[in-house]
């Protein structure tokens, strides 16, 4: 039995981000991109965090990576030079708020790090992981 697909949660409201995520996930087995604004992701966020924070996430197995940690994990998975990936990870907290306000119309939640996937949140995530 293969490992469950990882899920990348991103802001899908803008064409540029949909295109970027499409390029990022192209030819990547086991990674499903899911827009933050989708109803299923909103229910997942509520179950995982008790709220619906605007946040960049990568869910791998039973682990939820948020914010700068998610950025690093995604870049590592795409084979980006580790030095460059770490630079983006360090830069993310400094630019996320102003970038989010200007480009997304809202600042991302101040949620960073790695969390255990809650059983309730897993229920909402499993149908997303099953996408072909």
What this model shows, in words?
It is a single chain. With 132 residues, the chain is α+β, with helices and mostly antiparallel strands. It has one domain (10-120). It is built from five helices and five strands; from the N terminus they run βαβαββααβα. The protein has a five-stranded mixed beta sheet, sandwiched between helices. Strand 3 and strand 4 (63-66) form a beta hairpin. The longest helix is centred in the C-terminal third of the chain and has 23 residues, at 82-104.
Topology:
Elements: E1 6-10, H1 15-25, E2 31-35, H2 39-49, E3 57-60, E4 63-66, H3 68-77, H4 82-104, E5 113-116, H5 119-129
Parallel strand pairs: 1-2
Antiparallel strand pairs: 1-3, 3-4, 4-5
The number of distinct structural domains comes to: 1
What's the helix-strand series?
Answer: EHEHEEHHEH
Instruction: Count the DSSP helices.
Output: 5
What oligomeric state is this? single chain
Taking the alpha carbons of the first and last residues, their distance comes to 16 Å
Describe the global form. Answer: globular
Strand arrangement across the biggest beta sheet: 2-1-3-4-5
Q: Output mean pLDDT.
A: 85
- Low-pLDDT parts are none
Q: What is the radius of gyration computed over CA atoms, rounded to a whole number of angstroms?
A: 14 Å
- The percent of residues in helical segments reads 40-55%
Q: What's the β-strand tally?
A: 5
Short description:
With 132 residues, the protein is of the alpha+beta class.
List its salient traits:
132 residues, alpha+beta, 5 helices
